[in-house]
Specification:
The protein has 210 residues and is an all-alpha fold. 44% of the residues lie in helices and 0% in strands. It is built from seven helices and no strands. The chain has helices at residues 2-29, 41-49, 69-85, 99-107, 123-130, 167-175, 196-207. Helix 2 packs across helix 7, helix 3 (69-85) packs across helix 4 (99-107) and helix 3 (69-85) runs parallel beside helix 5 (123-130). The longest helix is centred in the first third of the chain and has 28 residues, at 2-29. The protein is globular.
């Protein structure tokens, strides 16, 4: 009798191990446009699992679609709440859908102005938002703080001078190691648009201390 119970217990343990091993893949695999071989698969999986981002439908993530300012402010609000409270729960539905995130972002000094929310976000625009998405104090994990880890002197990013409107935010993210530029010369390409796949990678760098 004991031998049968032991075999049954071992069988249950093995089943549980297999389920846990398959769980992460199953989560991101629901997006048909982000297969396991896709360059940002692990980043999308991390961002979805942590409640930072969602798909454009039940089965698609749209990694090559331009990020809108509305989507950017949602991500920033979720990052801030996750870093400060350990959860992204608590946002209510609004009209338009992004209004609760805008209100949260303003209340927590992530932004001080409005953007054209339905327009695609430029790289400089999302950097301006994301640079304030992690609070400087009161973090659940101090390793999330965007402290400088690289030396990037003023006026050394080729296409971002110190007088650029978003220079402070851009240099902050470069110095924190979140961004390294869009080419070998470390250009920022501030006026180009940012795609959802690239954003998932940035979210991972900002929210995963490893």
């Amino acid at each position: 009798m004991k031998r049968k119970q032991s075999k049954r217990f071992c069988s249950l343990v093995l089943s549980l191990i297999m389920m846990l091993a398959l769980a992460p893949a199953a989560l991101a695999a629901r997006f048909t446009d982000v297969p396991e071989t896709f360059w940002c698969y692990e980043d999308v999986e991390f961002a979805v699992r942590n409640g930072l981002v969602s798909g454009t439908s039940a089965t698609t993530y749209s990694p090559d679609k331009n990020l809108t300012y509305a989507e950017a402010i949602k991500l920033a609000a979720c990052m801030h709440k996750k870093a400060a409270e350990g959860t992204t729960d608590g946002f209510t539905s609004g009209s338009p859908w992004y209004q609760p995130y805008v209100d949260y972002a303003k209340a927590n000094k992530i932004i001080t102005k409005d953007y054209v929310w339905t327009a695609p976000a430029t790289r400089a625009g999302y950097m301006e938002i994301f640079a304030n998405a992690i609070p400087s104090t009161g973090l659940k994990d101090s390793k999330l703080a965007l402290t400088a880890m690289n030396r990037v002197d003023d006026n050394t990013i080729p296409d971002v001078s110190g007088t650029h409107p978003q220079a402070e935010a851009i240099y902050k993210l470069y110095r924190a190691g979140i961004l390294q530029g869009s080419d070998a010369a470390h250009n920022c390409s501030p006026d180009s648009y940012i795609k959802r796949g690239a954003v998932a990678a940035i979210l991972t760098r900002m929210m995963d201390p490893a």
